[in-house]
Amino acid sequence: MAEAPLQFTHGDYTVGWICALPTTELAAAEAMLDTKHPVLPAADPQDTNCYLLGSIGSHNVVIACLPAEMTGKVSAATVAKDMVRSFKAIRFGLMVGIGGGAPYYGVKENSDVEGSEDEDSEDEDDDTRDIRLGDVVISLHSKSTEAVVQYDFGKSVQEEEFVHTGGKLNKPPNIVLGAVSVLQAKHVRQGHQISELLSKMFSRYPRMASKFQYPGSANDRLFKSNVVHGGGDSCKARCGPFNVNLVKRKERDDSAPRLHYGTIGSADQVMEDAILRDRWARKENIICFETEAAGLMDSFPCIVIRGICNYADSHKNKIWQPYAAATAAAYAKELLLVIPGQAVKEIPPIEQSRDLFWDIYTQLYTHVGKT
């Protein structure tokens, strides 16, 4: 990676990129930089973040990782708050990393989930969504669903189920949503560039190839929701005779990751329960689970990009984490490449927008108090 010849200031950085895991997500994020910039000290004395600086296309990007072994929405919110205090020109953020996919509702537990070959949809059954390991999920709202849902925010009512009362979380700026639309249209015509971007990453950093390469479809197993990973058994041992415990899915034509736009579920606890996963997937239309986004959306307007490394069930391992982190980072780069750098500078910085909100809120509150 080439070193930038110019000295940049804190005010030159307009995009904030946050990740949670140093050896996978942060490594992939840094590898996506076109040019690496010299380190700048934190502008705020109370800022304890360490930053990586560089450029992607026409954007200067500041990258921060959550402190080691301190994942979760509170840690993410703290990192974002300090980033904006030191880099006051940031217009929007990216939360990029890994997550657990929700591909299977699990309603027909005793049936083989397998569709006819003449179906227009990739889904094999109404109870199966074709989300696989290595695919990328992008937070995006619709008329009936939110981009990010804090599904563990609510209340427990006596003799009733937990009641979700989480309010609506902020959306990213329109310029980001517009870029998503442009990218979606481009992908219909030409397909995405994730595989090409990963190939360039491996060419530039050959040592990353063995760890971050595609693990292979043989290591992608979707268990039926009622099959729990017990004791010291391996995932292969839990497949059962003739793979009876696995959901049957069609072979894909290639190994390129697929992109999925929709609702991401965020909570303090890691989702490792397939039955609960399916319940929330149906209730909130969640297609991915993670633990940081809910802490960011209201104070750090961002789009959330997650590479799928597991199925949010008990059958977890770390084989897919590096590749999933890389596919998410590659999508983030492709997104930035369609956003005009000059247009980003025309929108208010996050901190300025936040200050404007509080000024308006204070005026309204004062006015209401006088009436």
Written description of the protein model:
- The protein is an alpha/beta fold.
- It has one domain (2-355): Rossmann fold (3-Layer(aba) Sandwich), CATH 3.40.50.1580.
- It has helices spanning 22-31, 73-86, 174-190, 194-204, 209-212, 274-284, 321-337, 341-345, 350-370; strands at residues 2-3, 15-19, 35-36, 51-56, 59-65, 92-101, 136-139, 148-150, 154-156, 162-164, 259-266, 286-290, 302-310.
- The strands form two sheets. Strands 6-12-11-7-13 form a five-stranded mixed β-barrel.
- α1 packs parallel to α7 and α4 (194-204) crosses α7.
- This is Nucleoside phosphorylase domain-containing protein.
SSE topology sketch:
Elements: E1 2-3, E2 15-19, H1 22-31, E3 35-36, E4 51-56, E5 59-65, H2 73-86, E6 92-101, E7 136-139, E8 148-150, E9 154-156, E10 162-164, H3 174-190, H4 194-204, H5 209-212, E11 259-266, H6 274-284, E12 286-290, E13 302-310, H7 321-337, H8 341-345, H9 350-370
Parallel strand pairs: 1-3, 2-5, 2-6, 6-13, 7-11, 8-11, 11-12
Antiparallel strand pairs: 3-4, 4-5, 6-12, 7-13, 9-10
